[in-house]
């Protein structure tokens, strides 16, 4: 028998590779620009805690030894901080990996997974890879339509994703609505609440989901060290869930999914709540600055509770992205995120925010004068 083509799995054939925020090095190479500001991937502009750096230096002596597969010291410390049991925690190579583990473990051909349209794209991609069918319910004014998502449940539904705050809009769902949603969703459907930007939220309308873990065995909460802890490069995040789910995920998980440096840095970061509080405060100040400036420019945006803002424009996001890039400012064009005439900008340091605003003003002036 002769084959002419290496066969790829059907589910993969029509997928496209993920397009991430443009890296600084790439823009430097392509445009020959010296000074570049990256406000594209919702990273922490203040880096990470000095305690994390110190602990990585020490841990470097151990790089010839595999890490502990379940990161027990880190899991134990997290459990104490969150006041939950250690066996309700699974560490992942970023919360990205926990998403992947969940779909790999629970989704098979034709299973339905409900999510918002638009939300974090990795939910859809992982569901497709595993043969499932994403059921996408449009946001209402940038906010999850929980009623619509509830009504979309069928006998094929296996999983529901709620991204809170939502990426890319930065919005949160109302406390009471999420509370009653958690109560209503049938217990055989996994309800995954992604709280990657949890630490940035200051609004009283935000629901604390942790207390529901004990009573709702289908609830999964995702968090990460990539955002406010500033450890995106190390790839470490976690999921909180019933032990019965974790027992299934660990059958699928790579044995050494989180590396030693990541475990050590995350462990040490938990000893520096001041760093986290300062980042949250500076982010809040930056958000207010950006919102004021954008409003003065006559622009509107979704009300953000995270470390980024999605700005509505009169021009295609792609065009504004390219014009900003020429000025050394990298943001995300909304066309890649499901909203044509928008851009998503990460809240940076005060200097970075000012540079973004000035550059955006230049782009708008340029288009007005042509
Ligand atoms: C909503 C959301 N969930 C999960 C992630 C993945 O984070 P990580 O894999 O770095 O923990 C991101 C990253 O941008 C995100 O925005």
Which helices and strands, and how do they pair?
Elements (H helix, E strand, L loop, with lengths): L9 H4 L10 H8 L5 E2 L11 H10 L12 H11 L6 E4 L2 H12 L5 E6 L3 H9 L3 E6 L7 H6 L5 E7 L11 H10 L5 E5 L24 E6 L12 E4 L2 H10 L7 H10 L3 H24 L3 E2 L6 E5 L4 H10 L2 E2 L1 E2 L8 E5 L3 H20 L1
Parallel strand pairs: 1-11, 3-4, 3-5, 5-6, 6-7
Antiparallel strand pairs: 2-8, 7-8, 9-10, 10-13, 12-13
The site of pyridoxal-5'-phosphate (PLP) has 13 residues, from helix 5.
Family: Belongs to the class-II pyridoxal-phosphate-dependent aminotransferase family. Histidinol-phosphate aminotransferase subfamily.
EC number: 2.6.1.9
InterPro entries: Aminotransferase_I/II_large, HisP_aminotrans, HistidinolP_aminotransfase, PyrdxlP-dep_Trfase, PyrdxlP-dep_Trfase_major, PyrdxlP-dep_Trfase_small
What can you tell me about this protein's structure?
The protein is α/β, with parallel strands linked by helices and 370 residues long. The protein folds into two domains: 11-40 and 274-369, Alpha-Beta Complex (Aspartate Aminotransferase, domain 1), CATH 3.90.1150; 50-269, Aspartate Aminotransferase, domain 2 (3-Layer(aba) Sandwich), CATH 3.40.640. The chain has 13 helices and 13 strands. The chain has helices at 10-13, 24-31, 50-59, 72-82, 95-106, 121-129, 146-151, 175-184, 243-252, 260-269, 273-296, 317-326, 350-369; strands spanning 37-38, 89-92, 112-117, 133-138, 157-163, 190-194, 219-224, 237-240, 300-301, 308-312, 329-330, 332-333, 342-346. The strands form three sheets. The chain has a seven-stranded mixed sheet, sandwiched between helices. The longest helix is centred in the C-terminal third of the chain and has 24 residues, at 273-296. The mean pLDDT is 95. Bound molecules: pyridoxal-5'-phosphate (PLP). Pyridoxal-5'-phosphate is lined by residues 42, 94-96, 120, 163, 167, 194, 196, 224, 226, 232, 237. Residues 36-360 form the Aminotransferase class I/classII large domain. Belongs to the class-II pyridoxal-phosphate-dependent aminotransferase family. Histidinol-phosphate aminotransferase subfamily. Its EC number is 2.6.1.9. The modification N6-(pyridoxal phosphate)lysine is found at residue 227.
């Amino acid at each position: 028998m002769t084959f002419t083509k290496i066969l790829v799995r059907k589910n993969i054939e029509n997928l496209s590779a993920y397009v991430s925020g443009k890296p600084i090095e790439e823009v430097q190479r392509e445009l020959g620009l010296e000074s570049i500001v990256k406000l594209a991937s919702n990273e922490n502009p203040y880096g990470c805690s000095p305690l994390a750096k110190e602990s990585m230096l020490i841990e470097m002596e151990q790089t010839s030894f595999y890490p502990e597969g379940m990161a027990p010291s880190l899991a134990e410390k997290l459990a104490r901080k969150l006041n939950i049991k250690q066996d309700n925690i699974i560490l992942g190579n970023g919360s990205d990996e926990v998403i992947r583990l969940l779909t790999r473990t629970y989704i098979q051909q034709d299973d339905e997974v409900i999510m918002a349209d638009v939300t974090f794209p990795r939910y859809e991609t992982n569901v497709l890879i595993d043969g499932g069918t994403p059921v996408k319910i449009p946001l209402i004014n940038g906010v999850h339509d929980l009623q619509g998502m509830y009504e979309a449940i069928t006998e094929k539904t296996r999983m529901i994703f709620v991204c809170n705050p939502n990426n890319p809009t930065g919005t949160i769902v109302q406390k009471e609505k999420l509370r009653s949603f958690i109560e209503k969703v049938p217990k055989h459907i996994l309800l995954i609440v992604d709280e990657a930007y949890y630490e940035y939220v200051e609004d009283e309308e935000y629901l604390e989901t942790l207390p529901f873990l004990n009573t709702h065995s289908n609830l999964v909460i995702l968090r990460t060290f990539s955002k406010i802890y500033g450890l995106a490069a190390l790839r470490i995040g976690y999921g909180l869930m019933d032990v019965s789910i974790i027992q299934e995920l660990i059958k699928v998980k790579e044995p050494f999914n989180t590396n030693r440096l990541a475990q050590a840095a995350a462990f040490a970061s938990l000893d520096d709540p001041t760093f986290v509080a300062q980042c949250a405060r500076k982010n809040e100040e930056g958000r207010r600055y950006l919102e004021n400036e954008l409003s003065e420019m006559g622009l509107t945006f979704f009300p953000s509770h995270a470390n980024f803002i999605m700005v509505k424009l009169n021009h295609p996001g792609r065009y504004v992205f390219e014009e900003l890039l020429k000025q050394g400012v990298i943001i995300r064009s909304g066309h890649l995120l499901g909203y044509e005439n928008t851009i998503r900008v990460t809240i940076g340091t005060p200097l970075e925010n000012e540079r973004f605003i000035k550059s955006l003003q230049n782009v708008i002036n340029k288009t007005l004068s042509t």
